[in-house]
Amino acid sequence: MTEQKLITQNKDTTANSTNDDTDSSESSSSVENSSSSESSSTQSATSSTALTESQARQVLKNWADADNVDSFGGYSLDELETIKGENGNWSFVNDDGLSWGVSSTGKIHAPGDPIQ
Q1: Is the pTM of this model over 0.70?
Q2: DSSP characters for 60-87?
Q3: Measuring CA to CA, how many Å separate 82 from each of 4, 10, 29, 37?
């Protein structure tokens, strides 16, 4: 999957993102063959599809742009510490300990979101 395709796909999914779990029974090939005109619900990825750090950072940037988030607890995205977690998840943590997570499916978990 090209990074540009992931960016386009992410713009569709994060613009309408919720904290609900995605259906992981969908095959990753359906994501690779999907077009950006399809609904975001058909563009979920399986947990076996890991994002690179660069892709996770872009997902978080797109989410912040879509939700008009101007900083990450007073820090820029470039100032956040990046931590690779299990199953292809990424965390971006500011110096105050606030953390923004990006799952391998592209879901965002921001500070204050309920734990699921």
Answers
A1: no
A2: HHHHHHHTT---SSSS-GGGSEEEE-GG
A3: 21, 19, 28, 32
